[in-house]
Amino acid sequence: MGRVDAARTREPRVRGIAARAGGWSARHRWAAVAVWVLFVVLAMGLGSAAGRVDVKESDQMSGEVGRAVQIIEDAGLKDPAGETVLIHSEGEDGAVAGSPEFRAAVKDVIGAVQATGEVTAVTSPYTTESISADGHSALVQFEMRGDPETASERVAPVLDAVAEVDGAHKELLIEEIGGASMGKTFDDAFGSDFQRAEFSAVPVALGILLIAFGALVAALLPVALALTAIIATMGLMGVVSHLQPMSDTANSVMLLVGLAVGVDYCLFYLRREREERAKGRDPRTALMIAAATSGRAIVVSGVTVCVAMAGMLFTGIAEFEAMGLASLMVVAVAMVGSVTVLPALLSLLGERVEKGRVPFLNRRKRSERGGADGESRIWRAVLTAVLRRPWTALVVAAGALAAIALPALGMHTQNLTLDQEFGDSLPIVRTYDRLNEAFPGGADPAQVVVKADDIGAAPVRRALEEFRRQAVSSGASKGPVDIVTHDAENVAVIDVPLVGGSDQEKAEKSLDLLRDTVRPATFGKVAGVEAPITGQVAGSKDFNDQIVGSVVPVFAFVVVFAFLLMLLCFRSLTVAVTSIVLNLLSVGAAYGILTAVFQHGWGASLVGAEGVGAIISWLPLFLFVILFGLSMDYHVFVVSRIREARLQGRTTRDAIAHGVVTTAGVVTSAAVIMVAVFAIFGTLSMQSMKQMGVGLAAAVLIDATIIRGVLLPAVMALLGERNWYFPKWLGWLPDMTHDESYDDEPALPAPARGGEEPERVGV
């Protein structure tokens, strides 16, 4: 009996950061928990005290668009919340602008909006000549009083007044559109969409974990770790924002990434600890082995994901930089928490981690669950077929992924127009289309921000008038071209409706005409004058150009550094190369699915994406960074287990079989959680969010099944011992393998409750 006890209680001989951290935490569990709680509280407190500095509009873009906004900000000017009322008659027999009924409607609109007390600078179409060429449409324009950022909260009385006038003039269509009215409409229709998705992500993850573990306490641990990591990172974002401004978008992306990696890391660790205990090891030994193996995989994965997220810092776009830094921080915090406070909690809980067992979940006998060592019966069957014919598996799987990725070769990216983003379900979208049809470019005019030493000087005045004339004579605009001068600030703002209207491609040609021909011929001849051109079309074009220009440096940074990390951490050139290739295949397949569904419309009705016809411009780069990082989670975890088995003396083929089937349960659980969370975002109304959700969910599903379950073992089986090839000329590189060695003498089964066999864990 003494020998058995000795075998069970012998502590593993380990080395490495993760193992040492886990060992210290297990020995000083209360201290580890207290330090973690103190860190979370301090981070949140410091963040609240510091306050969050958000990305300014002028920081969003470099180049002309950013410079135009910077001039406005430096001058202390605020772009007012402009609103427009479109008065329109249908058909050839409809009333025209000169008719008595049309004039009466215009008068009623002006009187109604002025009576609300919420507007200023109301203009009549008869004085501004804002009448369409066919005479069937006219515009009453005005500005909302007060802060333009809160105008959407105060526009309701104005909308009600316009609707009342519309009801009184049945023969005409009277509709309001503008920044404030659009903001209110979208907030009412979709404002809660994103928050609802964020809030539902946690219960979904908890439910899946409950099914995976069959015990409430075990399911709560990963969610608790992820949430505390997210809370701490929110606080850190406030502090860091004084150096790198943050945003609500960065906060939402951080929440998504934090939930994904926080749950994954805890799942990896907890799954291994339970597996070792199921073998009959005592709790301390099981915890040390989990720290030495899964803990190390978490550190390698976490560092690799951080590198991938850092790729966003090379875009030069403030919003992307904020998302990258926020994601990097939450991954680092979750990684540290997984290898410190998690071992302490597991040590404190002991057998109580099984508390709150759910009837009928996870209580089947071993014969019903699969083979030994936590293996999955389903994946054992798949893997047997793959290893029997690896060439066939490789050709079929790689061919399928290549076919799925093929549509991506014709991917078309652009900033989605209003009707592409929201469809025609909202009346204001149809108003936008009618306005653009009657006044091409009027809904989103180009803005020329003119800065001079003396805006009132005669040469500058002549240039302004000449620009107005040439903007129309060149064919870039059909007018009217409005000029607003701010003499005290020496700034003038010119609104130029672009020919092409909501047709981005045609509108960009008009924009190029203004920038390349009209501006040099007018303002270019006056010394000391700046005239950057901004607006929706200019912002979309410049943003797309900047994204395209940042693709190469971001891709190169992420791929090269991920390759180097894999090379150093696994000390294998082959593993490093195959990891990059397999991850790129996963990303390529996601691109193909996105293009097929949202651009070509294949199966678009299934996700509510009919008629979109394009991929939003920021998504491909965003998906690459996020997916490359998250894919490394699974890859590092599976390959670490294979390498561990190989170091214990198994043949490469046996190590592949052991590594894949013993990690299948946790990889499946992690993938199901991520797919479910991302799929929630695929149900949102905004097409950009829908594209993000579908792309992420599809990629994770492919990665966890075809890539890790078929391609990876097939490639490694074909390579054999060459998997561990490390050329001698690279011997000078630092050794970061930190092989965690331990006594793997089989332990006796732990006594089962009620005479049953020990319970297994997995999905």
The protein's oligomeric status is single chain
**Widest beta sheet: strand line-up:** 2-3-1-4
Helix content: 55-70%
Major beta-sheet overview:
4 strands, antiparallel
Number of strands: 10
Q: How far apart are the termini?
A: 35 Å
What's the alpha carbon Rg, rounded to whole Å? 31 Å
Inertia-based shape: elongated
Overall pLDDT confidence: 83
Topology summary:
Blueprint: H1 2-9, H2 17-27, H3 29-50, H4 57-60, H5 63-74, E1 82-88, H6 100-115, E2 119-123, H7 125-128, E3 137-144, H8 156-168, E4 173-178, H9 179-213, H10 216-240, H11 248-278, H12 283-310, H13 318-339, H14 341-349, H15 366-369, H16 377-388, H17 390-405, E5 413-414, H18 418-422, H19 427-438, E6 446-451, H20 458-473, E7 482-486, E8 491-496, H21 504-522, E9 533-534, H22 536-570, H23 573-599, H24 604-607, E10 615-616, H25 619-647, H26 652-681, H27 687-719
Task: Briefly say what this structure is.
The chain has helices at 2-9, 17-27, 29-50, 57-60, 63-74, 100-115, 125-128, 156-168, 179-213, 216-240, 248-278, 283-310, 318-339, 341-349, 366-369, 377-388, 390-405, 418-422, 427-438, 458-473, 504-522, 536-570, 573-599, 604-607, 619-647, 652-681, 687-719, and strands at residues 82-88, 119-123, 137-144, 173-178, 413-414, 446-451, 482-486, 491-496, 533-534, 615-616.
Descriptive notes:
- This protein has 27 helices and ten strands.
- It is α+β, with helices and mostly antiparallel strands.
- The chain has a four-stranded antiparallel sheet, with helices on both faces. The protein has a four-stranded antiparallel sheet with strand order 7-8-6-9, with helices on both faces.
- A hairpin with a 4-residue loop joins strand 7 and strand 8 (491-496).
- Helix 9 (179-213) runs antiparallel to helix 26 (652-681).
- Mean pLDDT is 83; it is low at 1-14, 363-373 and 743-763.
